Amino acid sequence: MTQTVCDWGAPVGETGPVNLIHCHGFGNQFLIAFTDEVPVDGPERARSLCDPVSGIGADGLVFGTPTNRGDSTRLTFTLFNSDGSPAEVSGNGLACFGHAILRTMPRQEDLDVVVDTAAGPRRIRVVGTAVDVEVSVTVEMGAAGDGPGLRGLSVELGGPQAGRVASVDMGNPHLVVEVADPAVIDLATIGPQLEAYFQPVGCNVHMVSVVDRSTVWLRTWERGAGLTEACGSGACAAAATAHSWGAVDDIVRVRMPGGETTVVVGDPMVLSVTSTFVGDSEVTDG
User: Fold this and answer.
1) Complete DSSP assignment for 56-86
2) Can you say how many angstroms the Cα of residue 57 is from the centroid of all Cα atoms in its chain?
């Protein structure tokens, strides 16, 4: 059954508590609020709430709002990165979003919903119940397309050699760099250096090695969030790229520091995520 949120909590712009649902996908952390509309100070709220010292701590803040005002049968997913910048889409973010929707529906078991994003509609399927700490989620991420141009880009990794390089669009931009061992790359330094080529839009930067025909190893520098434990859209970009190289088959295990996901290569790319509920927080709106 396709369901969605029916109780949006306090409308943005009115003083009152707003509930934040905190979930993570393989360590990729998101705070999710269901509101009537996206607040104009969304970027500022993201910077404040995602700060691990002065706030709650997360990689991004997501607002779930009615796609059509007053119509609760369709939701729009809006994500601000931890630095306040907007993101078109996020694989782990969408998985956590689906988990958060399910948690607002006490009598609901499983969920199948299409939500709107800046990159277009995305289908989320959740297996579990509203009270489950962990649920299994699949997200249809759309087709992998050609990303931003790479002409003039110099990939210097500070010693290790880069292999094949590709640019992928998953509704958001990705740079995939083949390396022998992603663990030895100083990605905190190399990531922002490579991303600078793509300014002002920016780009997610991934170091990838092919382990075998069914497995790749991935580390990520995320646009707007820095080093993260996992990246769902990046896992799709890495799997699609390795598949285009003829290095992997259609079903790909993507190992990341936060855990292992499975990507089915196709149109759409299908991402599997374990979403974990961390906790609820109330913040005052207005």
Assistant:
1) ---SEEEEEEEEETTEEEEEEEEEEETTS-E
2) 16
CA distance 276 to 253: 19
pTM score, two decimals?
A: 0.92
The span from the CA of 74 to the CA of 126, in Å, is: 16
Q: Do 201 and 141 touch, CB atoms closer than 8 A?
A: no
Per-residue pLDDT of the chain (286 residues), as tens digits, is 223 333 334 333 345 688 999 999 999 999 999 999 999 999 999 999 999 999 999 999 999 999 986 566 799 999 999 999 999 999 999 999 999 999 999 888 999 999 999 999 999 999 999 999 999 999 999 999 999 999 999 999 999 999 999 999 999 999 999 999 999 999 999 999 999 999 999 999 999 999 999 999 999 999 999 999 999 999 999 999 999 999 999 999 999 999 999 999 999 999 999 999 999 998 876 5
Between the CA of residue 56 and those of 1, 15, 41, 84, 209, what are the distances in Å?
Answer: 33, 20, 17, 15, 33
CA dihedral 81, 86, 90, 95 (to 10 degrees): 70
277 CB-near residues (< 8 Å, 6+ apart): 21, 22, 23, 99, 103, 132, 133, 134
